[in-house]
Amino acid sequence: MKYSVVIPAAGSGTRMKANQNKLFLDLMGKPLIAHTLKLFEEDAWCSKIILAGKPDEFQIFNEIIKKEGFCKIEALVAGGSDRQESVKKGLDSLKGDEIVLIHDGARPLVDIKLVHQLVMETEKTGAAILAVPLKDTIKKAYNKKIVETIDREALWAAQTPQGFKLSTIKAAHEKAVLSGVKGTDDASLLEALGQAVTIVHGDYRNIKVTTPEDLVVAEHFITGRET
Ligand SMILES: Nc1ccn([C@@H]2O[C@H](COP(=O)(O)OP(=O)(O)OP(=O)(O)O)[C@@H](O)[C@H]2O)c(=O)n1
Ligand SMILES: C[C@](O)(CO)[C@H](O)COP(=O)(O)O
Question: Can you state which reaction this protein catalyses (predicted)?
């Protein structure tokens, strides 16, 4: 089984409150994005990587790629004003109809065995995501006034990678642009078209490094993995 992967990495890291793109922050001696890229560089199932970044950060990305000796990065494309746009620009550089995964640059800890399970599920159903069941009770509230407790039995926290047939996800992004549909993940663009997306049970360690404490957690998980 082979797949391509699009890695959106053109964000601003606002919630990280760092003075640089959070993907360049040090994690165990190398930039966070280097850990994410390494996962796919070392996966024999991965045929190519498309990286979407900010043009004014291309030099930093290229320095990291050169230093780490990465060789699967087929294209470094200019990202967009939001994640959806960055992903679309990455997809636009792909042809054919193989499986494509879309994986946040900010998720450096995904287990490659789960990636393979996702690829096989995507092969079977055409669209699938990694997700984990929620562990907290979820409230709906307005101005901090609780209006409803949501039954969490049917709720999952979506992660990445998210896997699709390339033609399916490209069409969904195109239609989203035409209709103005916005989604914080790629599966939601298929859902908006009434298309089915299946879940592969993921791993709570596959965190998205978003706020400062996430970097501490990520370091802990990497240290634990290497012992
Ligand atoms: N215009 C954007 C915004 C986000 N991303 C990428 O999408 C992934 C998930 O986004 P998030 O974790 O929200 O990153 P940021 O948008 O940088 O964070 P924040 O929302 O705190 O600014 C990240 O790898 C980020 O680099 C992107 O490629 N292009
Ligand atoms: C794609 C994602 O990681 C799935 O949980 C999430 O939607 C990204 O959200 P962000 O606000 O762009 O980090």
Answer: 2-C-methyl-D-erythritol 4-phosphate + CTP + H(+) = 4-CDP-2-C-methyl-D-erythritol + diphosphate
> 81: which 2 tokens?
């004003």
Percent of residues in the chain assigned helix, strand, coil, to nearest 5? 40, 25, 35
**How many residues does the structure list for the chain?**
227
| Closest ligand to the CA of 90 | 1
pTM over 0.90: yes
DSSP string for residues in 62-84: HHHHHHHT---EEEEEE--SSHH
Tokens of 198: 């299946």
At a CB cut-off of 8 Å and minimum separation 6, what does 56 contact? none
Q: Which value does ipTM take for this structure?
A: 0.98
3-226: CATH topology is Spore Coat Polysaccharide Biosynthesis Protein SpsA; Chain A (3.90.550)
- Over the stretch 40-53, which tens digit does the pLDDT of each residue have? 999 999 999 999 99
The ligand with the least distance to the CA atom of 86 is: 1
- Ligand 1 proximity of 9 Cβ (cutoff 6 Å): yes
Ordered by start, the domain boundaries in the chain are 3-226
